[in-house]
Design goal:
single chain, alpha/beta, 10 helices
Length: about 220
Amino acid sequence: MTVRVVIVDDQALVRAGFRMVLGSQPDLVVVGEAIDGADALRVLARTEADVVVMDVRMPTMDGVEATRRICRDNPDAPRVLVLTTFDTEADAFAALQAGASGFLLKNVPPEELLAAIRVVAAGDSVVAPSITRRLLDRFAGRLGAGPAENPRLAQLTAREREILLLVAQGLSNAEIAARVHVAEATVKTHVGRILAKLRLRDRVQAVVLAYESGLVTPGG
């Protein structure tokens, strides 16, 4: 399977570097480039892509707003991997809340970037659950948490609700399996069903929903 990638960054040298790294891989192909978020939307309107590698801070339209528009109400949209020079939790949280499937710094080794693109393309997240938990604990106050009984959660079985709670608490599939005494493969199946029922792209969005709905509270 070939993963089609669009690179979005306002610096031509950065785009060229990413294109060179990705071009060295037989399963990755750069199908488009954009200089800012607005340009990215135009490129994606005419280009089929699987993953968008998105900078955060750009003129005209930043990466967070572009991510929000790409992911909004569109389960078939390409997945967004946000890369930034700035190591700030605020940027990471904003990107994840907007719908990004991952958040990395631009100074990661090339092999880590390549692995992240493949993980995101496969439908998973490249943000570790423990990091997601730390981000949400720090910034969840900005969400304006809704009622504890969010109607969307009513679709879940009691076991699925339990699994969602443990995912939101930052546990890995293996840790959840040990906690509820089932096989790790069973946990993976439950997580897949949760994402399908709630129409979520990955477990990062599941964690955000758990906080937004009040199922989990910061530090709780």
